[in-house]
Write a structure and sequence with these properties.
By secondary structure, the chain is α/β, with parallel strands linked by helices. It has ten helices and nine strands. Helix 1 runs parallel beside helix 10, helix 2 packs across helix 10 and helix 6 packs across helix 10.
């Protein structure tokens, strides 16, 4: 039996259609909703991601603002730019692309983004609220993973989820979101002993380390659901999906799985920010 393809492009299209209607309603109330993206330096993956975000903004009626700063930018210069965007009433979302040059205080810059405009969920306050189960802006990729599971009706209650990767923007927050849905979560990383045994007991595997074809069928059980949030050179993910096809029940393709929904989550949270502002004014 062929596994179910968890097609992110289908979900992204449905989300964009909904967002287009909501953006029209926002603009009718006098707010020209904008999403600002800051790229520091010439990291090609950041520039490509920013370009994709800008195109998606235009599709739903959000005005993209792109700020490219050179690699010699200081922490203070970057903070000044963030503060200006914080004060701009039409800017409803701010994304600071990473990695940043090593001389910049990344955490100070992430935390300078106003919580209600932090549409990529990188602010310390938003992460804390996520951990406590309080309303917040979510990291976009973990939110996209949850959206995919919900869209295709994949239940989490009582399931064993293995998350391979422990980054602050993906592995840790997606684990918290899974726990909030009553899954049992194991976080795996480079120092996990006997990784194969852990993965072999998992009902759902989320791969998010950025190492191509790290996970193959030899360490997975029959019927496992595979969520591949890795993206590596050559358009391949962290899971060797060709080898896993005979045993998995569902999987996200790379590309076309988690990626398109991640972009949609950035737009969705920007729209939510705008709607909250209008509601509270």
């Amino acid at each position: 039996m062929q596994p179910l393809t968890l097609d992110g492009r289908v979900i992204a299209k449905a989300i964009r259609e909904d967002l287009s209607r909501r953006v029209c309603a926002i603009k009718s109330q006098g707010l020209d909703i904008s999403l600002a993206s800051i790229v520091v330096g010439d990291d090609q993956s950041s520039l490509i991601y920013q370009s994709s975000n800008a195109k998606s903004c235009v599709k739903v009626g959000i005005t993209p603002i792109t700020i490219i700063m050179n690699s010699t930018t200081t922490t203070q210069q970057l903070l000044d730019t963030i503060h200006q965007l914080n004060e701009d009433v039409n800017v409803c979302g701010i994304i600071l692309h990473h990695p940043l040059p090593k001389h910049i205080d990344e955490r100070a810059c992430f935390d300078a983004i106003r919580c209600d405009k932090d549409v990529d969920g990188v602010n310390t306050s938003n992460f804390g609220r996520l951990a406590l189960g309080l309303p917040c802006m979510y990291p976009s990729t973990p939110l996209s993973i949850m959206t995919i599971l919900d869209y295709y009706g994949i239940q989490l209650i009582g399931k064993h989820v293995a998350v391979v990767g422990r980054s602050a923007i993906l592995g840790k927050p997606v684990s918290l979101l899974m726990l909030a849905r009553h899954a049992t979560v194991t976080i795996c990383h480079s120092r996990t002993t006997n990784l194969q045994a852990v993965l072999g007991n998992a009902d759902i595997v989320v791969a998010c380390v950025g190492k191509s074809n790290l996970i193959g069928k030899e360490c997975l059980k029959e019927g496992v659901v595979l969520i591949d949030a890795g993206y590596n050179e050559g358009n391949v993910g962290d899971i060797d999906i060709d080898s896993c096809m005979p045993i998995c029940s569902a999987y996200t393709p790379v590309p076309g799985g988690v990626g398109p929904v991640t972009v949609s989550m950035l737009l969705q949270q920007t729209v939510q920010s705008a709607e909250n502002r209008l509601r509270n004014n």
